[in-house]
Design brief:
single chain, ABC transporter involved in vitamin B12 uptake, BtuC
Length: about 290
Amino acid sequence: MDLTTLLIQCLNALQYGLLLFLVASGLTLIFGIMGVINLAHGSFYMIGAYMSFALAPVVAATFGGGFFATMLAGTVLAVLLGYVLEWAFFSFLYEREHLQQVLMTYGLILIFEEARSLLVGDDVHGVDPPAWLTGSFALGDVMTYPVYRLFISGVCLVLALGLYFVFSRTRLGMMIRAGASNREMVQSLGIDIKFLYRVVFAAGVALAALAGMVSAPVSSVYPGMGNHVLIICFVVVVIGGIGSIRGALLAALLIGLVDTFGNVLFPQAAGVLVYVLMALVLLWKPDGLFKAG
């Protein structure tokens, strides 16, 4: 492997890891802080991707906007979807057993898949990135790298820094961390924990949907696209430590490296390398890399 190829694979690993973090950060908020095993989280990623496809002509015709206006509209709709879902379904699951959580969220997967089939069909769709992000830049004499992949990395990095700031430097982050540690104590201090959880859930749904919208021009839009993402996201949460944002970031970057270079160097074993990584981390630190926070 020459230096140029190594650089391209490192950029691919970074982009994949950061995108994976964007999806998994929403799951670690919901799973780690609220204690709900949400199997429908991959469906939120799929919904975001389909919104980037379906909303684009509507936004263009109504507001004259393009890709970024579609992302903004899709994010707002994802927040509203998350808020309604938490109010209608997930708010009843906090004191329930994990089996009941799994059954209900699996039912949501079936509902979302059927709704997707009825509304947009079962075809594979492509989404065009903005014209100014369609080019590539040269790496060496022969290789090029797409500008849009760097854009994905940049968006995910900005959001990662934003999450870190919210959780470590703001009053909202302090209340969320306190609510994860002792819900009853937070309620006794006069904080509306139900509303707080609703905000956290809506944010988790929006992060997953935004990841789907950002990745759609690269991965295309197709039925069941959230299933694989869901499995890898749970691996990220387990490796990073349940409820830890910085752990999710580090775990996602490690998985990006292992998966990308595994496909290049060990293609026949690439499918199991991520799970080998998880096993090794858990042997070393059974609770994951970091504790919640």
